[in-house]
Design a protein that fits this description.
Mean pLDDT: 79
Radius of gyration: 24 Å
Oligomer: single chain
Helix content: 55-70%
Strand content: under 5%
Strand order of the largest sheet: 1-2-4-3
Shape: globular
Structural class: mainly alpha
């Protein structure tokens, strides 16, 4: 269905900035981040037919959902940041991205293992430092899905299906997909496609994007989710990046790959292999090919461009192989099947990296409850490489499951002495300290993590426990509210803030900040409910 003619007006959002309780996560709202106009809550999500399609298509263009119709490459669009205000400001994009991630988490489809997250973010950071916009903040996350796909959402949020890394043959191929998605963001392929025809509240827009990309309408308000889910499913089939967008993302991504010390030839090689898979009879087309169509001319162009870069051997980080092994162990629904898989590959020598295969075997044994065998495997790996982050964390997890949390804590503290501030070590250490009753120690570790990971629900959840254990009741409930909010559970967040505001011992200043946050979340909740009622009508 072709896009109708619409007036290019600024996409505006209903949002409210409120200070949070003193000492709790979050930063005060910056005027630059709230430069859009405010509208009263409750305007309809399901806009009347003539206006609805144009608005929702434009929102979904940000996420380049699976497509059938391409937007013409020569459509005249104003430059990003044009004074006419046709596009999201950077602050608005950031806030839309935060709402998008709330609903993505609510879908329960994310892989939240801190080791896996840390590796993905580390590769993403290595690439973004060499991008056209190195100061921009990016968030990389795993989607627990065996299909081959990756996507870029608003606010620099880039999702990677776990199935994709298992299809790559080198770390450079994996990095190539990330570099391509980063290029879509830095070249403003997402932002330049936004042509808003009407107004929509910020939470509803985030939910719509999450529903389109992940089918994530199951979280949060059920009525609103149902309305959005149906519309997103309908509109998924209507849009795509242009061929010019894809070629530019290839070109820019290849440059980023080279400057980040990866092999730029890996990009056309991987896409060429995906293209062959899509043309092979009897093999379903990978989802990645629907969102990123691979043509013969595109492959030829990227292969030729890759030849302009000097050839060099690129060493692979062991973490790439360990990450693949861990995900391989988790892809089996039955832990026993994973154990049999690794026993077979190790027995027959069918592996590319022996230590990572033993690592996957240790994780499979742990999942199957065979703790003695898992301990034997991980101890052998530690003997060969005692400073490997993954081995240290898994060793600590095994100690915890064996009822020895103090040994787990000692292992993690030793690791942190080598890697101060490490996310997986710190998060695992805080959990281990809570198990030993060292709430004050956990609180101290987590205070630093709140500042470095201000949007991480896992940190908020542990911090709520640590605050409760140290007698900070109001603070505990306020942190628990931020956990629920980050998970798209708005009503639960409101309830926790109500409890926090009534807690004994809370001072006047802290109560005022809690109540301001509570008022903001109540207004957001009511806006969503009104939109759901109007959308259902």
């Amino acid at each position: 269905m072709p896009l109708g003619r619409t007036d290019t007006t600024q996409l505006t959002h209903l949002t409210r900035c409120a200070a949070r309780p003193q000492g709790l996560p979050g930063e005060p709202c910056d005027d630059a981040d709230v430069s859009f106009r405010r509208y009263p809550p409750g305007f309809s999500l399901m806009l009347r037919a003539r206006r609805s399609l144009s608005l929702l298509l434009c929102l979904l263009l940000m996420a380049h959902a699976p497509a059938r119709v391409a937007i013409a490459a020569d459509v005249a669009l104003p430059e990003f940041g044009d004074p006419s205000g046709s596009f999201l400001s950077p602050g608005s994009d950031k806030r839309l991205g935060q709402q998008f991630m709330r609903w993505v988490r609510a879908s329960k489809k994310l892989e939240n293992d801190p080791l896996l997250t840390d590796y993905l973010q580390s590769i993403g950071n290595k690439l973004t430092r060499e991008s056209d916009d190195p100061s921009r903040s990016f968030n990389f996350f795993w989607v627990r899905d065996p299909t081959i796909n990756a996507f870029a959402g608003p606010g620099g949020n880039i999702g990677m299906h776990t199935g994709l890394i298992l299809e790559t043959e080198t770390e450079s191929e994996f990095a190539a997909v990330l570099a391509h998605e980063i290029a879509h963001v830095t070249q403003r392929h997402i932002a330049r496609m936004i042509e808003a025809a009407d107004r929509m509240s910020l939470p509803a827009a985030g939910l719509l994007l999450a529903a389109a990309l992940l089918g994530a309408a199951g979280g949060g308000d059920a009525a609103l989710a149902a309305a959005v889910g149906g519309q997103a499913a309908l509109l998924q089939k209507e849009i795509n990046f242009t061929r010019a967008n894809e070629q530019e993302a290839d070109r820019v991504g290849m440059k980023v790959l080279s400057e980040a010390d990866f092999d730029p030839r890996a990009m056309p090689v991987f896409f060429q292999r995906m293209g062959r898979a899509g043309r092979t009879s009897g093999i379903s087309v990978p989802e990645y090919l629907r969102t990123h169509p691979v043509t013969t001319s595109r492959i030829s162009d990227s292969l030729a461009r890759a030849e302009s870069y000097p050839y060099r051997q690129v060493p692979e980080d062991i973490r790439y192989h360990l990450t693949r092994a861990a995900l391989r162990a988790q892809q089996f629904s039955e832990p026993g099947a994973a154990v049999l898989h690794f026993e077979s590959t190790l027995r027959d020598g069918r592996y590319r990296h022996e230590d990572s295969e033993h690592y996957g075997y240790a994780i499979a044994l742990q999942r199957a409850g065979k703790m003695t065998e898992a301990r034997r495997e991980i101890d052998a790996l530690l003997a060969r490489n005692p400073n490997q982050l993954e081995y240290q964390v898994v060793s600590a997890r095994l100690y915890t499951e064996a009822g020895e949390p103090r040994r787990a804590t000692a292992t993690l503290q030793k690791g942190l002495a080598q890697r101060p501030g490490s996310y997986p070590l710190s998060l695992t250490l805080a959990g281990s300290m809570l198990q030993t009753g060292d709430d004050a120690g956990a609180y101290k570790v987590l205070r630093g993590m709140v500042k470095s990971h201000p949007d991480d629900p896992a940190v908020f959840s542990l911090m709520a426990r640590a605050a409760a254990g140290t007698g900070k009741a109001a603070e505990s409930h306020a942190y628990l509210a931020e956990y629920h909010y980050g998970m798209g559970e708005l009503d639960a967040a409101v309830r926790q803030l109500e409890i926090a505001s009534r807690s004994d011992g809370i001072d006047f200043y802290s109560r005022s900040r809690v109540e301001a946050r509570l008022e903001a979340l109540r207004a957001e909740s009511e806006a969503l409910r009104k939109e759901a009622r109007r959308g259902g009508g």
